[in-house]
C-alpha cells in the first residue's frame, strides 16, 4: 500500500481542466432560476442521484464523475446518501410507473430550494421506452425539471458541463 | 402426483420437432414429458437456462449436464396454464411469476402466487397477452413479504431508493440484533416493458432495445441478440466482425471487472483501490471511444457484423494500454492481498454454497467463485473463442474474497484475449449489409458470456421480417436468489459488500 501512496505523491495529478458550462444549459437555467435561490445555495451543491428505471448506463457515467480525471468534488459538487441532504436531484431513466411514487416521495423529502436535473435521453423524453405501458416517458411527467442533459448515456464531460452550469448560473 | 425418473437427455429431445427453429432443437412436448424434464432438472441432471412464454405456450431452455446438450422444449397452454417448474425446481419461480404478470399464463400448483413485475401501477393487467385487461387499478397493490417468526426479530426495509448511485430495488431484512436471519428481495421497479416493445418491432429497433436491457452489458446483449437473429436467418458474419465483437466484449468485461473490484473494496471502506481501479476503468472507456466511437460501445454490434471498425492507430494505443495495465495488475493484486483490514472484511463474508450455485445454474463470477466452472465462451462456445486461449477464473471458497480473486483471474485472461485478438485480427469486411428476408417464420437462439454470466437470447421472426417475440434472459435471474441465501448469518453492515461482489443487474431482470 505504501508504494501506491508514495506514487501518488510523486506523480502529477490526472485531473483534467474543467469544461466551461454548456451554453444551452445556461440558457435553460437562466429561465428557470431565481437569483434568490442561487444566493441561498451558494457555490456548493449536494446531489442525490435517483434511478427512475434506467438501464444503468447513465449511472456508470455518473459514477465516473468521481474518478481522478473528472474529480467532481473540486467544484463543490458532491453526491449524498439522502434526499434530505440534497439540493439537486439527478434523475435517470424513463420514469417507470413502478418508480413513480418513490420519485415523488424523494422529491417531497428534498428541502427547498431544490433543482431537478434529468440525465439521459430516457429521463428527458422517455427515449426508446416512451410508448411503453410501464413508463411515464420522461421525468417531467412526474416532477418539475430544471435542466436536461441529453445523451445515451451522456458522457462525463457533458454531465460536468451541465452541473458546472448549475453552480455558475 | 407420482413422478417417474427418466434420463433428462432422453426426454428433452422427445416430442415433435419444430421445423423453423434454428440454433438449438425445439420440441413440442406433452405434459408428461414436460414434468419428466422438470424432475430431471430437480435431480441435477441439467440446468435451466430460461423459461418464457408468448401467451400461447411456455418454452424452457435446458442444458443437459453430462453430455452438455442444449435444447428448448415447448408446452402448448390452450387453457393458459402449465405444470409449475418452480414447484420442484426453485430457480424457475421468479420466471414463472414474471410470465404470469406479463402474459397471464399460470403455473399450476406454484408455491408462490404473488405478483413479481406487476406492482399494480401500470393501469393494465397481462400487457403481453392477446387480450390485456385494462380495468386494472393504477395504484399500489399490497405485497406480502414472507413471514418470519421468532423472538427478538426486527425488520429493516431498504429501498427502492438506495443511499448510493445504484439501481432501484427493495430489500427486506429481518435481523436478530445485527445478524441477518432472512433477506427478501422485491424487484421490478425498473420494469420498462421491453418484451412488449419488442413484439412487432423491426430488427434494428430490437437490436437497440436489446443493447439497453442492461447498460453495463450492452455489447454482450447486442452480440446475443444479433447471434439469435443470425442463427434464425442463417446469416454469415464476416470474420473481421467476429473478432471485433470479441474485442468489444473483452473490453466491456475489463471495464466492468475493474469497476467492480474497486467498488467492492470501496464498500469495505478501502478507497485507495477504488481510486486506482477507477482510473484503469476510465482509460478503457476512453479507449473504447477512440476505437469504436462510444465509451460503453452501445449500438456498435449490429445484425450481420459491427457498425464501427478500429483504425491501426487506435489499435496501437489499445495495445499500449493493455501493456500498462498488465504491469499494474500484479501491484493491484498485492494491494488487495496484503491489506489485512480488507481481508478481514472479505474473507468468509457472504458465502454462496456450491450446492446452491449448482442447483441454480448460477453463471459468471458468482458461479465460478463457488466451483461452478461454466462459461458460455467454452460451452456451447462460439466464434472466435475456439481459436483463442484463455483460462477461467476459479475458486471454491464462495465468499466475497473469492469473487474478487476470480475477477482478478478474469482480468488477466481478458487482457491476454485482447492482445491475441489484436495479433490475429483478420482484414476484410466488417459488416454484412444485407439482412435476408425470412420468407417464413424463423426462430434462432444464442448463449453469450457477458461479464456477469451467460445471457440467453431467443427470437422469433415473422414472415414479414419483424420481430414477433424476443426473450432475453439475464444471468442475474439465477444469482439474485442466491444473494438472499448468502447474506444469512452475516451482519447487516456487510450487505453492501456482499451485494457489490454479486453485482446483479436490476434492469436486466426487471426488463
UniProtKB/TrEMBL annotation, chain A:
Alphabetized UniProt keyword annotations: 4Fe-4S, Cell membrane, Iron, Iron-sulfur, Membrane, Metal-binding
Lineage: Bacteria, Pseudomonadati, Pseudomonadota, Alphaproteobacteria, Hyphomicrobiales
Cited Gene3D superfamilies: 3.40.50.12280
Taxonomic source organism: Methylosinus trichosporium (strain ATCC 35070 / NCIMB 11131 / UNIQEM 75 / OB3b)
Start and end residues of each NADH:ubiquinone oxidoreductase-like 20kDa subunit domain: 55-166
InterPro entries, alphabetized: Complex_I_20kDa-like, NADH_UbQ_OxRdtase-like_20kDa
Pfam families: Oxidored_q6 (PF01058)
Similarity comment: family membership: Belongs to the complex I 20 kDa subunit family.
UniProt name for this protein: NADH-quinone oxidoreductase subunit NuoB
Gene Ontology molecular function: 4 iron, 4 sulfur cluster binding; metal ion binding
PANTHER family assigned: FORMATE HYDROGENLYASE SUBUNIT 7-RELATED, HYDROGENASE-4 COMPONENT I
UniProt cofactor(s): [4Fe-4S] cluster
TrEMBL record, chain B:
Domain NADH:ubiquinone oxidoreductase 30kDa subunit: residue ranges: 73-122
Domain (NADH-quinone oxidoreductase subunit D): residue spans on this chain: 280-434
Xref: Pfam families: Complex1_30kDa, Complex1_49kDa
A molecular-function term among this protein's GO annotations: NAD binding
Highest taxon in the source lineage: Bacteria
This protein's UniProt keywords: NAD, Oxidoreductase
Alphabetized PANTHER family for the sequence: FORMATE HYDROGENLYASE SUBUNIT 5-RELATED (PTHR43485:SF1), HYDROGENASE-4 COMPONENT G (PTHR43485)
Protein name according to UniProt: Hydrogenase expression protein HypE
Species lineage: Bacteria, Pseudomonadati, Pseudomonadota, Alphaproteobacteria, Hyphomicrobiales
